[in-house]
Write a structure and sequence with these properties.
single chain, transmembrane, Flippase-like domain-containing protein, mainly alpha, membrane, about 325 residues
Length: about 325
């Protein structure tokens, strides 16, 4: 993907979000100002824990491919590389992890393959969360896809078309990249129980993520839908943002999807405010965890939050 396209896509995504929901911004700002601080602090602390635990699962993915670099070192490398996705170019989160993997005793080819496995496991986990949420909330998918108004529908449709055209244009490069990443998997020493633990951990963390979203909504609206509904919203919004190829962290796209889904059960200004606050708190949590990697040296003898609750499969 050309550099100018990489830089343009995030700008387009955020611009389309502002245009689509711009009329709601004054009321959304008012809702943000009136949000309950205690709930916001609780969500931030929960997201810090989520980010650290999510990073630590990469060591299970590597273990599933026969590599055992140590959870502490793998976690620290994952966090530092992931935060780099916000640098211009949008590829540094993955590229830097592959380049720096030899520092923790993992070959670059295996590290590249682990990224593909990690993506497949996370997609499966968030897809499972969205599906269970939809089934548990008793809401039909078509009902969730009803848009608040025709104008919003038009802008979201335009965004989908733009992303679709980019993916279509780069389809051969995407396929070639997948083939290169999959090549080392043929010779990997598979450890299926480790990969099973990774999937269960990703799924458990996604449920925790949905709980945090519900807590955030309570900061704006005292009475809300059940947890199953927010699980479906969180899962679908994550998937929408993930498949926004070239947009770092799905920024703008994920917020549009979340606003659209939350707008089914609450006033649109509150939905916009929640989506913006959700992104801001996640960014703040990433920065806080990044700072922690420089303050705390990895201790391979110390058990992490996932080691304490490891399941045997």
């Amino acid at each position: 993907m050309k550099i100018w396209i990489k830089r343009l896509l995030p700008v387009c995504a955020v611009t389309l979000l502002l245009v689509a929901f711009g009329s709601q911004l004054p009321a959304a700002v008012e809702a943000l100002v009136g949000a309950k601080l205690a709930f916001l602090v609780a969500v931030f602390m929960g997201l810090v824990a989520y980010t650290w635990c999510n990073a630590s699962i990469w060591s299970d993915v590597l273990a599933g491919l026969g590599q055992h670099p140590g959870r502490g070192r793998a976690t620290r490398l994952w966090i530092r590389s992931e935060v780099m996705k916000w640098l211009p170019g949008g590829i540094w989160g993955y590229a830097s992890r592959v380049v720096k993997a030899p520092e923790i005793g993992v070959g670059r080819q295996v590290a590249g393959a682990s990224l593909l496995v990690e993506l497949l496991l996370t997609i499966a986990a968030w897809g499972t969360l969205a599906t269970l949420g939809l089934l548990g909330s008793g809401r039909q998918l078509l009902g969730l896809m009803l848009l608040p108004d025709g104008r919003t529908a038009g802008w979201i449709a335009l965004l989908v078309v733009v992303v679709g055209l980019v993916v279509f244009k780069l389809r051969s490069r995407i396929w070639d990249a997948l083939c290169r990443r999959m090549a080392p998997l043929r010779d990997a020493s598979w450890d299926l129980p480790a990969l099973g633990r990774a999937f269960v951990s990703y799924l458990g963390l996604s449920v925790f993520h949905a709980v945090l979203l519900k807590v955030l909504v309570l900061a704006f609206i005292p009475e809300t839908e059940g947890l199953a509904f927010f699980a479906s919203v969180d899962g679908l919004a994550w998937l929408i943002g993930f498949f926004a190829v070239g947009v770092p962290g799905g920024i703008g796209v994920r917020e549009a999807g979340m606003t659209w889904l939350l707008g089914q059960v609450m006033p649109l200004p509150e939905a916009v405010a929640i989506a913006v606050a959700w992104r801001a708190l996640q960014l703040a949590a990433e920065m806080a965890v990044l700072g922690g990697t420089f303050l705390v040296r990895p201790d391979e003898g110390r058990r992490t939050c996932l080691d304490a609750s490891r399941v045997s499969l």
